[in-house]
Specification:
Layout: E1 6-10, H1 27-44, E2 50-59, E3 69-78, E4 82-91, E5 94-107, E6 112-113
Antiparallel strand pairs: 1-3, 2-5, 3-4, 4-5, 5-6
Amino acid sequence: MKLPIIETPLQIRFSDLDRMGHVNNTIFMQLFEIGRAELFHQVCGDFFDGVIVKAVVDFHSEVGFTDKLLTETHCSKIGEKSMELTQRMFCNGTLCSTCTTTIVAFDRETRASVVIPRDWEVSDVTLLRH
């Protein structure tokens, strides 16, 4: 099964702002997490037991309180026990941030990595926004 591309509208809270009136850089990981959770909820019907082992965020432009945000989340790579999610955040329709996250599938009982479901395939990137 090809993993879906998920578009998630996001809401900015007043507490997300810094003294300059921008969304604080630390908040971006929380906003990207909402998109990741939505992808796994749609695929698994619940949460995916995975551990983030690497996350890289790039900031392209500022985001303010009244801006409209949307995150696009898709699976860009799948290995035996890990996967890479690529996310793009749009502010009023313009790319403002990107995030690449490597997640290792994890068994909470054995506290060890496990195999990603074999039927999962990377997302169809032809469906991405341009």
